[in-house]
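During the no-cost extension, the postdoctoral fellow (Dr. R.K.) reprocessed legacy sequence entries with the updated structure-token encoder. One reprocessed record is reproduced below for audit purposes.
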Amino acid sequence: MHAKLKEGEIGGNGAPRFGCCRLCGAPLATTFVDLGMSPLCESFLPVGAIDKMEPYFPLHALACGECFLVQLREYVQPEHIFSEYAYFSSYSTSWVEHARRYCEAVTARFGLGPGSQVFELASNDGYLLQHFLPLGVPVVGIEPAANVAEAARRKSIPTLIEFFGSTLADRLVSQGCRADLIIGNNVLAQVPDLNDFAAGTARLLAPEGVITLEFPHLERLIAENQFDTIYHEHFSYFSLLTIDYLARRHQLKLFDVEQLATHGGSLRVYLCHADASHKPSVRVDALLAHERELGFEKIESYSRFAEKVHRTKRQLLSFLIECKQNGAKICGYGAPGKGNTLLNYCAIGTDFLDFTVDRNPYKHGRYTPGMHIPIHPVSAIDEFRPDFLLILPWNLKREIVEQMHHVGSWGCKMVVPIPDVEVIDPRDFAP
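Re-encoded structure tokens follow.
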């Protein structure tokens, strides 16, 4: 058992230590990247709040030298972040389609039917579970944000408005529930107590049941310089090696993995009880070996990331400064969480972007946290006729170029900031 250290305590080698790892309890001493102070990225402000004090917290990602989990310290409890949430998954057409294909594939692969029970953790507005309904598979959503859970209920998806953990799992089991499939898409990063969460899934899971988890892959974050995916709502960032460690710690078996293009490069992992009959895929050992070759079991590999981030900041600011000096009009497209990390770290405010737009009506009339950039409907782009659109949800750039192809008619170009500044002329893409 590792002894807990106080914030800022100095280790034996003279390095500062920053608390303990949330997965294995080891002391944290290695900086992955320090993005300074930043507000909560999904806390969009109404007009009456933009002249009031905003809370800022350190956005300092650390790497554990024992289990190699990249993580932020928990400055804000999930109840404060997720009880009402601005992100509705259904506003991304490509993400909904991704969910539909998953539901059909997993139903066929594991023989799900009317006698099965599917649970989704952080089920959002029902964007995924809705696809099981025509397949005749019973579902239950678990979603702590009341506003998005209500949207799921309006789609006839039973939804519990709660945080998932071992306590809720025990209660469900006591009521006779056992899950044939537990789904967690882009939720694991948002869990501060990973061990309680994993223990809960293990308790709720039927003897031959399956857990699938999707999350951005740390390899892609590093390789593609995706530092803007680091924000307070994401407590942890995962390699497959760390997932394997988490699974074994809770008597679960990692038996398959798929590499996905979503969110800039993600993994979908398949877990079951350690003694279940699901046979391991060769893909698991192959990817674990690949990560070891990349140095993911050497702490030095993590400490080199920060300089790439600094370089991207300088490059983006140089580009925007040159554009503004030449009289260009610039606005943003999208108001995602990752965009707010980028805007705050690079100090990009209304001196660069007149406004940004979003398809989600919840955000209209509000302002981005920290930089206070106004958020308008997408139609504002046609009225403003900018010279450049800065695409903040760069992981959806193809979808956005297709949707906004017409802006090329007045010479507008699109700018993708990650991993390096890329200027796209929509006229070069067929509609």
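Residues 69 and 299 are 10 Å apart (CA to CA). The longest strand covers residues 205-216. The remaining legacy entries will be reprocessed before the final report is submitted.
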